[in-house]
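Minutes, project huddle
Topic: does the predicted pose make sense with fe (ii) ion bound?
PN asked that the exact inputs be recorded in the minutes so nobody has to dig through chat later. Recorded below.
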Amino acid sequence: MVQKLDTLQETPSQTAGPYVHIGLMPTYAGNAGYYDEEIGISPLAGDVAGEVIEVVGSVYDGTAWAMRDALIESWQCDAKGVFPGHEGADPNFTGHCRFAANAENGEFTLRTVKPGAYKGRGGVENAPHISLWIVARGINIGLNTRIYFEDEDNDSDPLLNRIEQHPRVQTLIAKKTGYGKYRFDIRLQGEGETVFLDL
Amino acid sequence: MTDFITQDQGPLIPRNRALHPAPYDPGYKTSVSRSPSLPLLSMESSLSEETGPTFGHNKFGALDNNLILNWSKGAAPAVGERILVHGRVVDENNRPVPNTLVEIWQANAGGRYRHKKDTYFAPLDPNFGGCGRTITDENGYYEFLTIRPGAYPWPNRGNDWRPMHIHVAIYGHSFGQRLISQMYFEGDPLIDHCPIAATIKDRAQLDRLVAPLDFAKSRPLDFLAYKFDIVLRGRRQTMFENKMEGM
Ligand SMILES: [Fe+2]
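Predicted holo structure (tokens), as shared on screen:
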């Protein structure tokens, strides 16, 4: 017998199921007023620095059906590229939002601040992006991806540059549809499948 | 708090996906069209995954972790077998994860969710909402008072039933630690028949989601207790993390 390791193993994931909204977004599930203050309603907690944007999209399953029950969480830095909790971060920006596909048409809307670029380990510049985590019935472990923006300089981003098939980079880039408005669709499977991340 | 800060430095230990359910599992039919068919892009974590939201105590109500009373705002208790669910959140380095958000949701004693999409004919309990939340203490402990959820049927194969379970969502200190799972109950025969539980192929792994009956925490003439510990991803901690590139 070799020596034993001290490290533990992560608890295994299980699907969030169809009723995830009652746990994480009670108002959306029809249970408004459950908590005094619901978590993640908006990342904007006051007057924020930078541009407020709206990202609209859908989560499509492998049959190109816009899922009505997807729940998404986002996390990002502020307009200057500083993460909430770090020195110099915008005090009116929480960085975190919960939003869900519309039960009628499957469309979601994320209203937030356009994030800034930031320097990562080794001084590498990360292009502005929003991290997403997607859960729903039938998703056995939450899916991670990122929103980048077509009107930003994405050329030196270390993550986008790791995507071997260049056309797939486009699956992570939100398209500008108007002033402060972007479209970002997520495809779980099949043609145009979104690049999902393991970071 | 020094340890809290040290613990939260360095890249996340890459996720061992062999321990988790595969995205595609035909026994769980909905996963067939909701699973990516291309490989995930694996990279070292960055600040985006190594940071995460924090949730202050001030936002929380006194009954938020008491599902027996929180829907009726303390007016009347929910129907069902009273239970305490408690446990500890630690990371892969076996360090407690303090001040982290734990959220749960569940069906009522009859197996019905208070969700506009749940149409099962078991009745709603007017005094049960089915969700709760709390923040772990400085040692990573959490507690919920609730009722034991009922098993319920669901459309999958001809006659599938979910074992009694409580859904659990945990934040950790960073977005890359985010995890959703389900807690099952010791001795429930339906666990062996559930296609969702069976998405975890290794029985020892599945058993990690089965909470044992815990008499030491049970309160005589009041409630039974079940223990459910949670392990989140940890950080790589070596003496060589801050070395110069290529050295
Ligand atoms: Fe459930």
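Observations noted during the meeting:
- The radius of gyration of chain A is 18 Å.
- Chain A is about 5% helix and 30% strand.
No decisions taken; revisit at the next huddle.
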